[in-house]
Amino acid sequence: MKFDMGSQVLSTLISNSRGSSDDLGTLIRQLVQAAQPLEGKFNGAGRVAFDSFKGRSDEITSSLNSALSGILGGQSG
Predict the structure, then answer these.
(1) Helix (H, G, I), strand (E, B) or coil at 36
(2) Where do the H-state alpha helices sit in 1-77?
(3) CB within 8 A of 26, min separation 6: which ones?
């Protein structure tokens, strides 16, 4: 069975996915900045979770971007 998607569909999909990768990192950084006023207002497990997220935001961004890169690789293949 063959599918005809047109000549530009995959290149458009790959381009949009790359843009989404950039947007995703920006959104995570914006989330951390938006949460700044909440810093120090949590106690117990809430504080631990908040501090962990804030401290791991770069790692989370990297992991999500790696996953999206895998999708891009699949699209290219």
Answers:
(1) helix
(2) 9-35, 44-55, 57-76
(3) none
Model pLDDT, residue 2: 59
Name the architecture of domain 13-76.
Answer: Orthogonal Bundle (1.10)
CB 38 within 8 A of CB 50: yes
Dig out the tokens for 50 from the structure.
């908040």
Domain range annotation of the chain: 13-76
pLDDT tens-place string over residues 17-72: 666 666 777 888 888 889 889 888 889 998 898 888 888 888 888 888 788 777 76
pTM of the entire predicted model: 0.52
b vs e for 42-63, b when ≥16 Cβ sit within 10 Å of the residue's Cβ? eeeeeeeebeeeeeebeebbee
